[in-house]
Amino acid sequence: MQCLVRLAARRYVFTGKQKDMSEALHQFFNWDLDARLHPATFQSSNGFRRRYCYTEATSSALEAHERSLRALYAIYAADGKENEGDRAASLSLETTKLMSHDEWTRFCRDMRLVDREFTPREATLCFVWSRMRVVDEASDASRRRMVHLSFEDFLEAIVRTATMKALPFDDEIAEAGCADAGQLLLELQRHPDTYEAFMRDHAQAWDEAPRQPIDRCVDHLLSLIVHTVEGSVKGNHNQSIGALEAGAFVARGASELGALLDQFAPAAAPTSSPRRPTVRRSLSKGGPETHLDAITPQSQLRWAKADGDNR
C-alpha cells in the first residue's frame, strides 16, 4: 500500500498536477491502474454465485453426484502433499479437512480436466474466486479458511470449472451413441487431433456465458470425473464413487494420468484435408461399444468436419 501511495505522490503531487493527496490517489487508481488491469481483476464472485450457483437447477445437478463429490473432496483434502517451498511457508496453516491450492490442482490434473483450453491458470482462477472471505485475517484459523476450500467452496469451484471447460451438448452425445458426456470426452481424449478440433469448436472463456444451461454443464463435467475414476479402479461402475474407490484412485498414482494430456500440443497443419474421425456406435458380441471410425455422411459430429471436404 505504501508503494502505491508513493507512486501516486510522485506522479501527481510532486509534479504539481494535484495538491491534495487523496485526489492524487483517486486519479492514480482510476486513471492509471483501472484502465490497465486485466478484466479478471473485476470478476464478481458474488455475482457469479447468484447467477450460477444459488439456483435450484445447479443444486439438483450437484446433489445427484453428492456421494462422489464428498468422497473425492475428503480424499484430496486429506492428501497433504504440497510443493516443498509452499510447505515451509505455510506449516501453521496445514489442514487435512480443507482443500489447498496444490490439492485442488492435483484433483484437476487427476480428473483429466487440464488441457489446452482449461490450463493450470484457469484452474487457479477457479480456486481463488471460490474462496470465501473471512472477518479476521490475522489469526491462523481464519487464514487457514481463507487459503483453502471448504466443501461448499469446492462445489463452487466445480461449477466454475464447468463454465470454462469445452463440453459437448446433449444432442452431440446422443449422436455419438454415448451414454453421457464423460464417456464421449474420454473417447475423444484418446484421439488428440479430434479432441483438438472439439476444444476449438467448444472453447469457453471464464467471462462468457455458458452456451448451454449451467446444470447441463455441471452434469457433463461430473460425468467426466466419475468415468475417469471408475475407469481406473476396480469396483461397481454405478456412476457413484465411494470412499474406497476414491482412495484406491489416489493411491495408485492417479496424478500420472494428468501427464497424458501433454500430448495435446498444437499439431502441425496438415498438407491435405483428410477425413477426420468421429464417434460412432457399433455393436459387438459384448454389447454396444463406442469407438472412433471413419466419418460417414449419415453419422458425423460438427467439430469433426474436415475443412474443404467436398461430400
Describe this structure in words.
This protein has 311 residues and is mainly α. The protein contains 15 helices and two strands. The radius of gyration is 23 Å and the shape is elongated. It has two domains: 44-167 and 214-263, no CATH class; 169-201 and 274-306, no CATH class. It starts with a helix and ends in a 17-residue tail after the last strand. Strands 1-2 form a two-stranded antiparallel sheet. α8 crosses α10 and α10 packs across α14 (214-230).
Could you name the key traits of this structure?
311 residues; mainly alpha; 2 domains; two-stranded antiparallel ribbon; 2 strands; elongated
Cross-sheet strand order for the largest sheet: 1-2
Tally of strands: 2
DSSP summary: helix tally: 15
Give the CA-based shape: elongated
Structural domains: how many: 2
The largest β sheet comes out as: 2 strands, antiparallel
What percent of residues adopt helix (DSSP H or I)? Answer: 40-55%
Report how far apart the termini are: 64 Å
Strand content range: 5-15%
Structural class label: mainly alpha
Query: Any idea what the radius of gyration is?
Result: 23 Å
Helix-strand sequence: HHHHHHHHHHHHHHHEE
Low-confidence stretches: 82-93, 254-311
Average pLDDT score: 77
